[in-house]
Design goal:
Largest sheet: 2 strands, antiparallel
Helix content: over 70%
Oligomer: single chain
Structural class: mainly alpha
Strand content: under 5%
Order of helices and strands: HHHHHHHEEHHHH
Number of strands: 2
Shape: globular
Length: 278
């Protein structure tokens, strides 16, 4: 009875995960289709929620990040990026970091570690999500962004199911005991295949002529770094003593639990596109 109960509980959890995962995919597709300022606000909201989850996680470890300074940095940074199309991103990044540290210094009881966590919330996931804007603005279409999303989605999904079915050898037991070498390899293969198929379809939709070898490369790179992003998020959670970053998405946890891989995939796809596709 106990084993049967545990089996039913796991099946119910899996159904919830699939259901809300599907709702999330549909919401993302809707945001991409609407585009414009609605999509911009969607990304800003994700960055702000992600920063809040980071601050909350480190707060459980005893840190006191200056959340208001972090949120303000993200909003100002996104506003300047939308207005100046990323021309002064580096300058504004440094300015926002100095601004944040200045706000922290004004509070005499703020520890340097708290200041570091405040800046971390700005960079991760604040700045990382900017690469979604940059990928979209490359060609004023969404296909490069869709390729990054396809790589992340395929890696996470295939790795999860392959790991459940065939997983034997632990990948990084000290960081994430549930991840296996078999699941990782399956996720990598799934990313390459799915990105190639997605790219072929997008070539027809957008009348582009990107060679399949580029799709394979994006799938390979994206599948690799997305797993690094997942492990990085797991390491932070283990350090902070939490299972999930939040509970805003039933069956998945917090927003960061869903985009941790994407935060690493977006910059890599952007750099690859900058070097080889544009």
């Amino acid at each position: 009875m106990r084993r049967g109960g545990l089996g039913l509980e796991k099946m119910s959890e899996l159904k919830t995960r699939i259901l809300f995962g599907g709702i999330g995919v549909l919401l993302l597709i809707l945001m991409l289709w609407i585009g414009g300022w609605v999509f911009d606000l969607f990304l800003v909201a994700i960055a702000l929620i992600g920063a809040r989850e980071i601050y909350s996680a480190f707060g459980k470890k005893g840190y006191v990040p200056q959340g208001r300074a972090g949120y303000l940095m993200i909003v100002i940074f996104y506003l300047q990026h939308l207005h100046w199309s990323g021309k002064y991103d580096f300058v504004f990044t440094m300015a926002m970091v100095i601004f944040s540290l200045s706000l922290c210094v004004w509070k005499k009881d703020v520890h340097p570690n708290d200041m570091a966590v405040t800046v971390l919330g700005f960079f991760y996931p604040g700045i990382a999500m900017v690469f979604a804007f940059l990928l979209r603005d490359f060609t004023h279409e969404n296909y490069l962004l869709i390729l990054a999303l396809a790589s992340t989605f395929a890696t996470d999904t295939v790795a999860y199911f392959v790991g459940r079915k065939f997983g034997r050898k632990k990948l990084c037991p000290s960081i994430s005991p549930g991840k296996t070498v078999e699941g990782s390899a399956g996720g990598l293969a799934g990313s390459v295949l799915f990105v190639i198929l997605t790219g072929i379809v997008l070539n027809m939709v957008y009348h582009s002529h990107i060679a399949w070898i580029h799709f394979a490369a994006i799938g390979l790179l994206g599948g690799s770094v997305s797993q690094i992003g997942d492990l990085t998020a797991s390491a932070i959670k283990r350090y902070c003593g939490i299972k999930d970053y939040g509970n805003i998405i039933p069956g998945h946890g917090g927003v960061l639990d869903r985009i941790d891989s994407l935060l690493f995939t977006l910059p890599v796809v952007y750099i690859y596109s900058l070097l080889f596709l544009i």
